[in-house]
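Backbones bend. To wit:
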Amino acid sequence: MTSGGNVILVLLAVLLINASAFASPRQSSSSISAGYLYAKEQKKIDGSRGGIKLTDMIADMAAVGAGAVAGAISRYQIGNIATRIIAEDKRLSGLTGWHTAAINIFGSFILGSLAGTPTLDASTTKPDAKGISPRMRLMAGVGFCGSFTTFSTFSVDIVGMLNSGKFVRAITYATANNVGGIAAAFAGFNMAKRMIKK
């Protein structure tokens, strides 16, 4: 079978696995997924008893995919620009890799802002209602932020610094990522809450 055929089989398997997971309204709290949360929102909106419809599931996956593409391309481009600027100015050589920390911190701010923003449902008829739809939350949170931020690159950067004997830099980098990310998420959450109250 060609590689294209293998990709199609994998996509079909993912679709079937997701369809069976979303179709069941009985799920333990430990297995809550983005699709299940969306199904819960839909149940509140239209009173439906079952899980999420196949068309809604496909739309959810398309939204997550679109967000993921935008997030991955954004991270790639920021990395390219930062690497080029650092390569052109030797005085900035100490900043190599720090763009990953900046991306993670900014992504944490975005996700914190999303967490602080209420979810709108279809029954909301107020023209001045503030919030985002469940699908937009999936696109921006799971899709964009999920691919924009990167724990794996951060981890590999730390390992590289430790292997090079740059222990102070590794500790500083880890602290900046973790403390900066949490602080940014906290700031984003509170900013969104304040903006919604206005």
Notes: The CA atoms of residues 57 and 134 lie 12 Å apart. Residues 19-39 have pLDDT under 50 and may be disordered. Helices lie at 3-23, 34-46, 54-88, 98-115, 134-148, 151-163, 167-197. The chain has one domain: 3-23+34-45+52-197.
